[in-house]
Design a protein that fits this description.
Low-confidence stretches of chain B: none
Bound molecules: flavin-adenine dinucleotide
Largest interface: A-B, 82 and 94 residues
Distance between the termini of chain A: 21 Å
Strand order of the largest sheet of chain B: 15-12-14-13-17-18-16
Number of helices of chain A: 13
Shape of chain A: globular
CATH topology of the largest domain in chain B: Uridine Diphospho-n-acetylenolpyruvylglucosamine Reductase, domain 3
Radius of gyration of chain A: 21 Å
Largest sheet of chain B: 7 strands, antiparallel
Mean pLDDT of chain B: 95
CATH class of the largest domain in chain B: Alpha Beta
Oligomer: heterodimer
Strand content of chain B: 15-25%
CATH architecture of the largest domain in chain B: 2-Layer Sandwich
Strand order of the largest sheet of chain A: 3-4-8-6-7
Helix content of chain A: 25-40%
Number of strands of chain B: 18
CATH topology of one domain in chain A: Uridine Diphospho-n-acetylenolpyruvylglucosamine Reductase, domain 3
Helix content of chain B: 25-40%
Number of domains of chain B: 4
């Protein structure tokens, strides 16, 4: 099914009598079995006010189209959604609704927050076919419950997004990255934390292939000043990479290019930054070959290792983080386990928003 | 403004209910003497009052759970309360309710600057969260003007903002985790000192749910390193429109000040008379603050003044030192106090797209003439969060009603131009009956379904947020 608008989508959902697999461009997310419901027919940028930093787009609008419209005004989505097609060996067109439903957030997370923090409003069709609007298109809005957040990252399990309003950001005048060599994982991760604990407004903090990467964006003079201060913060062998070259470094981090095309399971782990070594150390102790890279100042750990390590990974994390398997196959579930209390609340919400279980496939 | 008729059956069982609460809580944690419960009869929306059945002041999550469990079994409504500074009637009780105050739960549980988070009990005041990490050079960013008094639990329930949220976001953008007690006493832990709690974003829904989904007893908050410095600049303009256009140009240019505050002539005059901040006599005034090192501040302010000069400012004054900066902020910070000196006022909180600013200010001026009530405008211009203050005389019969009618018209106007009823103060009882202006029945139904899941008996702060007729069947149980 490929409805052309919200009304057709509502009809389709009302008429459905079995599980649906909601997909934007099919570039991210998990897929179960069922009839395909493609949002790619519901497209278009519906409102764009550069001076108000707001953009409203139909959910099926390709991400690339949104990015092009913004770039024409020297603006962007601050949360830099990743392009994981290379990593996940998928092709297809990433849609803005898919980005929202996955809460797909890139390296700038440490400075500006996640996709959900940039989402101002949504329209969606729930499992009963009801069209629901929540939030709006203004920066501050506490009118009623925030279902925008509930929909962000819900992976299509509560309803099908038809429209999303975003707060956007001006492109900075300048961008640069400090690249530090000669760090161990422990000292590199400590350097990331020190940078983030400084007032120098770092917009990216990653440790990849033995290199510390610290991004600074803003007015030219300010970027130069902060780069100087950050360099002095931690002893090391630093070089400054600017402009397009810096941008390319962060695209690679964002898209986890280092793991693309390599065999094995890929895990995405969210953890307390100071404990970012717990999982790699546990794997090393168990003599499991693995490779890790860290974004978000150590708070996001990407891991590639043989399949079957889910239990080791989760027990090393304990209560201090959670792990999602984004690639590979094994008995351990892809999504992190929930406490019984949270699981009960989730089940309650699903029972009300999707009483017929049409969207259960997205649960993984 | 109506409230449901108190449940006579509950009122008649008061002694038994209080006895059950006393059985599970320490003696000093249960108050039922009307002379003492009086302190809890209203919040900062003081025109509306009701004496609660009883007040409980627990000291721990376990005590909160025990108290809620009793009320759940007895079918008694509970109104959670932080510091009672809500401007929307969010913590105003009903006569058949138990107020659950969290003021005694104010401990810091864990402060970790290396990982940039702090875990506190929810009764801790906003300002004292910053106080706990200040010495290490950190701060908690959301800064409501009431920050000396208001509690983190209240901030979470209202998703409060502040003058600096243009850069740092509001409560929801700085909240990492909570411990929540549901009405039946179930304790749920959501999120923690890491990004994105697994599963659905329940944290995002709890934040801003106005005490209707559960009682927050603990919170994990993001803390940030303090900027090297900050400096405000003051600008005066010949009209509201020109000041509005200047704000739009600054934002469009990609400059991101931490605050852009706007005051119109009635507000400037009142503040000047009250605080003697030395404000220029003009139609509209902007206070713009930027952060960074001295050189970074110079760089940003240079770019901002270039834009401002294109709009022929009648005054342009950059703070030259700390004392000067304080003086620039003085008038703005005393705006509400200044208004309170000359009149009773009602403070609205609608948000509009910044592009609609001139049009909305013009229309508010017309409404002010039609209703014969003066309006002073002071607001966060960078994000379109308006704070029109409607001046009225509480001693004059009919004035409050006229003021409320005019307020409703202004809020309808905000929604009409693409905005919303409330940007940071919340719905409470104040905007409850206007919800239908912004949301269709299906939209409200979706929100009420969330409450059905967290609080199936609709006992937590039940007469708030949703229009009474929309929630009637659910409240009846
Ligand atoms: C002078 C003044 C200036 C203000 N300035 C601002 C401002 O700049 N920005 C802004 O956003 N607001 C502002 N406010 C409004 C108010 O301060 C905020 O809404 C604040 O967050 C309320 O906190 P509180 O602790 O006083 O909560 P209360 O008033 O006690 O309660 C508010 C709501 O939270 C619920 N609640 C309280 N604690 C809990 C809990 N632990 N668990 C669940 N629910 C709970 C209550 O039931 C109620 O619905 C201002 C108010 C005043 C009087």
């Amino acid at each position: 099914m490929r409805p052309a608008d919200e009304a057709e989508l509502s009809e389709a959902i009302r008429g459905a009598n079995g599980p649906l697999v909601v997909r934007g461009g099919g570039t991210r997310g998990l897929f179960g079995a069922g009839e395909a419901l493609d949002t790619g027919g519901i497209t278009g940028v519906r409102l764009y006010e550069p001076a108000a930093l707001t953009l409203v787009a139909a959910a099926g609008t390709p991400l690339a189209e949104v990015e092009a419209v913004l770039a024409a005004e020297r603006q962007r989505l601050a949360f830099e959604p990743a392009d994981l097609r290379g990593l996940l060996e998928r092709d297809g067109v990433s849609t803005i609704g898919g980005v929202a439903a996955e809460n797909a957030s890139g390296p700038r997370r440490v400075q500006v927050g996640a996709a959900r923090d940039a989402m101002l409003g949504v329209r969606f069709v729930d499992g009963t076919g009801a069209v629901v609007a929540n939030g709006g298109r203004v920066m501050k809005n506490v009118t009623g419950y925030d279902l925008v957040k509930l929909m962000a990252g819900s992976r299509g399990t509560l309803g099908v997004l038809t429209e999303v309003a975003f707060k956007v950001q001006a492109q900075p005048e300048a961008e640069a990255t400090l690249v530090g060599e000669g760090f161990s994982a422990a000292s590199g991760l400590a350097a990331l934390r020190a940078a983030l604990a400084s007032p120098f407004d770092v917009s990216g903090a990653a440790f990849v292939s033995g290199q510390v990467l610290l991004r600074i964006e803003g007015m030219a003079g300010s970027v130069a000043y902060r780069a100087g201060r950050l360099r002095a913060l931690t002893a090391g062998d630093w070089t400054l990479v600017e402009g397009a070259e810096s941008a390319a470094l962060w695209r690679a981090v964002r898209d986890v290019q280092a793991f693309a095309g390599r065999p094995g399971a890929v895990w995405r782990i969210s953890c307390v930054p100071g404990e970012a070594l717990a999982v790699p150390q546990a794997l090393a102790a168990a003599r499991v070959p693995h490779e890790a890279l860290w974004d978000w100042g150590g708070g996001l750990l990407w891991l590639i290792c043989p399949e079957g390590q889910g239990r080791v990974i989760r027990s090393a994390l304990g209560e201090r983080g959670h792990a999602t398997r984004v690639r590979g196959d094994e008995a351990a579930p892809a999504l992190p386990p929930l406490s019984p209390q949270v699981a009960a609340l989730e089940a309650g919400l699903r029972a009300r928003f999707d009483p017929r279980g049409l969207f259960a496939g997205g649960r993984g | 403004m109506d409230m449901p008729v108190p449940d006579a059956a509950i009122l008649s069982r008061k002694a038994a209910i209080v006895a059950r609460l006393r059985a599970v809580l320490p003696a000093d944690a249960v108050i039922d003497d009307p002379a003492e419960t009086r302190a809890y009869e209203c919040d900062a929306l003081s025109a509306y009052r009701a004496r609660p059945l009883a007040v409980v002041l627990p000291r721990s999550t376990a005590e909160v759970a025990a108290a809620l469990r009793v009320c759940w079994e007895e079918g008694v409504p509970v109104v959670p309360r932080g510091a009672g500074t809500s401007l929307a009637g969010g913590s105003m009780p009903s006569e058949d309710s138990v107020v659950l105050g969290i003021a005694r739960m104010n401990a810091v549980l864990e402060a970790d600057c290396d990982n940039r988070y702090i875990r506190v009990q929810a009764g801790r005041t906003n300002l004292s969260v910053t106080g706990a990490v200040e010495a290490e050079g950190f701060f908690y960013a959301p800064d409501p003007s009431s920050q000396l008094a208001c509690a983190i639990g209240g901030n979470i329930a209202m998703n409060s903002g502040g003058a600096h949220c243009l850069k740092y976001g509001v409560t929801t953008n700085n909240l990492l985790g909570v411990t929540l007690v549901q009405m039946d006493g179930t304790v749920v832990s959501i999120g923690g000192p890491f990004a994105d709690a697994p599963g659905l974003d329940l944290l995002g829904v709890i934040c801003g749910s106005e005490g209707q989904l559960g009682v927050v007893t603990e919170a994990t908050l993001r803390i940030l390193p303090k900027p090297e410095g900050a400096r405000p600049v003051l600008m005066g303009f010949g009209s509201n429109e020109v000041a509005g256009a200047c704000v739009a140009d600054i934002i469009k240019a990609g400059l991101l000040p931490v605050a852009i505050e706007f005051m119109d002539r009635p507000c400037i005059r009142a503040c000047e008379a009250f605080a003697h901040a030395g404000y220029p006599d003009c139609e509209a005034l902007l206070i713009i603050e930027v952060e960074g090192s001295p050189a970074e501040i110079d760089e940003q302010l240079a770019a901002i003044t270039v834009i401002a000069r294109r709009h022929d400012p009648v005054a342009l004054e950059e703070a030259t030192d700390e004392a000067h900066a304080k003086r620039i902020w003085l008038g703005r910070k005393s705006a509400f106090g200044a208004m309170g000196q000359i009149n009773d006022y009602m403070c609205l909180d609608g948000t509009i797209p910044v592009s609609a600013l001139p049009q909305v200010l013009r229309r508010i001026g017309e409404l002010s003439r039609d209703y014969g009530l003066e309006v002073a405008n002071v607001f966060h211009a960078g994000d379109g969060n308006m704070h029109p203050l409607i001046l009225y005389d509480a001693n004059k019969p009919g004035d409050l009603e006229r003021c409320e009618a005019m307020g409703a018209d202004i809020l309808r106007l905000c929604v009409e131009v693409g905005g919303c009823l409330t940007g940071e103060h919340g719905v409470g009882i104040e905007k409850r009956d206007l919800m239908g202006v912004q949301y269709r029945p299906a939209d409200l139904e979706a929100q009420m379904r969330v409450k059905d899941v967290f609080d199936p008996k609709w006992l937590l702060n039940p007469a708030k947020v949703f229009p009474l007729e929309a929630s009637a069947a659910r409240r009846a149980g």
